[in-house]
Amino acid sequence: MLRVLLVCVQTSLLAMLFSPRSEAHNGPPFPIITDQRVGPCIISLWTHPDVGTGLFFVMIDPLPGGTIPKDLKVQVGVQPISGRLAEVVYPAWLENLRGQVEYKTEVQFDQQEFWRVRLILSSSAGGGEAVSKVEATPPGFGRWDLLLYLLPFLGVGFLWVTAITKRRRLRKVRAQQAS
Description:
alpha+beta
């Protein structure tokens, strides 16, 4: 039984060390702008700002009594607050959702720091901008995620092997006492 456990541990460690880098995230997107009027629309901007590829979701509602322009273009510009890089503007695409107008875009964050985020709307009915900031965060622990999530299973396996070993020793002691 102990050999089986050791083989499992060795296999898990080898898989962790030689696995490709995972791009996981921790937690759901969160809002950085909510229900703000920008041009002919009311917008909310949600983000999942992972270092590497960050996601932005723009939810758009019409003004009371109005409609969302058909030719609406949405862009998201990002720049480090430190000013070490120039602003890069990314176009957003319309997501196919039922009853909700949502645009989505992916932006590139090269390192963990605070970034200035500029949301740009343009259409024949008018346009506008909204500005916020966000901190780009690392996407999980990379290869260490596997070890972290494997620890509870290794603990249960260790307890199981310990219980089996104690039970065998107890049987041997009882067998020796009976003879």
